[in-house]
TrEMBL record:
One of its GO terms (molecular function) is tRNA dihydrouridine synthase activity. It comes from Roseovarius nanhaiticus. It catalyses: a 5,6-dihydrouridine in tRNA + NAD(+) = a uridine in tRNA + NADH + H(+); a 5,6-dihydrouridine in tRNA + NADP(+) = a uridine in tRNA + NADPH + H(+). Its EC number is 1.3.1.-. InterPro entries: Aldolase_TIM, DUS-like_FMN-bd, DUS_fam, DusB-like, tRNA-dHydroUridine_Synthase_C, tRNA_hU_synthase_CS. Residues 28-315 form the DUS-like FMN-binding domain. Its cofactor is FMN. It is an enzyme of class 1 (oxidoreductase). It holds the Pfam family Dus. This is tRNA-dihydrouridine synthase. Catalyzes the synthesis of 5,6-dihydrouridine (D), a modified base found in the D-loop of most tRNAs, via the reduction of the C5-C6 double bond in target uridines.
Amino acid sequence: MQPSKSPLQPKPSKGVRLGDMTLDPPVLLAPMAGITDLPFRNLVSSFGAGLVVSEMIASQEMVQSKPSARDKAELGLGAAATAVQIAGCEAHWMAEAARMAEADGARIIDINMGCPAKKVTRAAGSGAAGSALMRTPDHACRLIEAVAEAVRVPVTLKMRLGWDDALRNAPQIARMAEAAGIAMVTIHGRTRCQFYKGRADWSAIREVRDAVRIPVIANGDIVDPASARQAMSASGGAGVMVGRGAQGRPWILAQIAHELGWGSAPRIPQGNALTDMISEHYEAMLAFYGKELGARVARKHLGWYLEGADPGLRRLVLTADGPDKVLGLIPAAVASGARLAA
């Protein structure tokens, strides 16, 4: 399918320049807890993405070397197009975590000001993190300044439109963040209090784009080329960030990029190629986490891959006792009708 010739269709840029690197194509993988681990980021990158972002990492836990936090920050050998996202509420820990990620090879540090989870936002005052920082812009700015001053790599920011409809202050915070050294900002087109309900308001992202000179990336409900095109047009953004739309479809970022005019079409796996991709992703997760934990963590990915497959075969894959049985069942499950690209 060719990109629309509508006059509202944005002309593709040559990518987003950040420091000494260019995000080309400007189609980015969003940080997703429990999903954007190293095996999944590597798989998405293999199809083509301008940037992939780690799971959100608690800054203090990372500095204190808690294994779960360090696993989330693992860059492997393909760190060139990976950002490490950190979260927290204290400047000291945020700065130290940024230094650690940079020393480990991160090319970009991303600050989380968008997570709506209650366990992240529930603390009062300066103890709150994630999207709760949008309620305390001055404190948020101090965190941003601490991180930007701690590292030499570009620092980016991901946030929402605001805390709620009464406090939609993303343009104000974006201006403050730009002055504090942020190189790019990604806006999820919802408030914190919306969580993931309703529809993302891409047009409201344009207000942020108009408030700053740094690149602004649109995020929220971008699941395919059509929605990406609409988000670009409504927001005027420099690119898009894809989250849940990539679940079970690691090629979708490359497909979006191609249909919006960036790069060549990806080879979307079908048949035996799809079976091989799923099996290799499963084995990569076992190698990364260990067999017992890897098998549990992989179930959600297998479930997404096998949507549309025969329900009985899909159930057998998800409940099989042991990796060998899972790998043995995947070919039949795929052949029974596992979904392809949207």
